[in-house]
Amino acid sequence: MIGSRHLILLGLLVALALGSVLLSLLSGSIELGVFEVVRALTGSSTELGEQVVREIRLPRTLAAFVTGGLLGLAGVIMQVLLRNPLADPYILGISGGAAVGALSAILLGLGGLWVTNGALGGALLSILLVFGIANKFGQWSATRLLLTGVVISAGWGAVINVLLTTSTANNVQSMLFWLMGDLSQSQVGAPHYLLLLAGVLGCLWISRALNVLAHGDLVAMSLGVDVGRLRIGLFLGASVFTASAVTIAGSVGFVGLVIPHLLRMLGARDHRILLPAAMLLAGSFLVIADSLARTVVAPQQLPVGVVTAIIGVPSFVLILRRTLSR
């Protein structure tokens, strides 16, 4: 049974999500009030206010929330799949493959859709490499998957260094912004919303199996869980979520690592609660981080990944200290 405490937590996270979206729509070089934002969303505002809110701030806000939500889901899944509290969505080298694809497009002077498609292609290639190597001869294990991901990540890191050192000064700045995570040119559409919705519903459908799997393979198998098939599904699902998030905003760190730990500290250990809560909190966190990235050093903008790292590093240290003290 889901207790009232969990329902209150979800209600607060929904309110936080709405508040973060409103904060993002209010943040920017052009000052707009709450009522002006509401009128812009309903189409009854001035032409300038409507253009700023509906064409610039709202698409970026939605992109931040979807990206954060996907990373939150992927982080929870990875930590269960690898049974490693330090696991995050990028641990299997997906972000490295996406980075190589995107940076290659930038190096060739391509932009826009080419960069996105390059990142998607690199992420899919990394997924195939990790899955193919880890599952060779049918010897599937969390340890093999983790080690394969670490090796693939190191390989992609070497290629990224080569691309950076052989690029011109103009391309290097664009590459660094992409590597640190940037939402300035991000757009999301119906496929991204459907993926996030399908991810939440699909994870809820297998949430009981995830609760059992968290206690170990033997316990899960003794209770009738098909561990092999579940692992493959979790790997593919987390990989798709991560690949989609990376193609939207680049490599945004610490979201999928810190958010699941924070929610577990708040008592959300049941995956029926943890998964939707991670989606809501991670989405809200990235929206707030992007609002700070746009306003802290205005008129200049910071990569959103810099803000998430500044917030995420001390937060994770505090979480780790509290966990060890227990």
Element layout with pairings:
Blueprint: H1 4-26, H2 34-42, H3 47-81, H4 94-107, H5 113-134, H6 142-165, H7 169-180, H8 190-205, H9 207-213, H10 217-222, H11 227-249, H12 255-265, H13 271-295, H14 304-325
Helix pairs in contact: 1-3, 1-13, 2-3, 3-8, 3-11, 3-12, 3-13, 4-5, 4-6, 4-7, 4-11, 5-6, 5-11, 12-13, 12-14, 13-14
Notable characteristics:
single chain, 326 residues, mainly alpha, ABC transporter involved in vitamin B12 uptake, BtuC
Describe the structure in your own words.
- The model has no long low-confidence stretch (mean pLDDT 87).
- This protein has 326 residues and is mainly alpha-helical.
- Helix 1 (4-26) runs antiparallel to helix 3 and helix 1 packs parallel to helix 13 (271-295).
- 76% of the residues lie in helices and 0% in strands.
- It is globular, with a radius of gyration of 20 Å.
- It starts with a helix and ends with a helix.
- The chain has helices spanning 4-26, 34-42, 47-81, 94-107, 113-134, 142-165, 169-180, 190-205, 207-213, 217-222, 227-249, 255-265, 271-295, 304-325.
- The protein is built from 14 helices and no strands.
- The chain has a single domain, classed as ABC transporter involved in vitamin B12 uptake, BtuC.
Question: How would you summarize this macromolecular structure in one to three sentences?
Answer:
The protein has 326 residues and is mostly helical. The chain has helices at residues 4-26, 34-42, 47-81, 94-107, 113-134, 142-165, 169-180, 190-205, 207-213, 217-222, 227-249, 255-265, 271-295, 304-325.
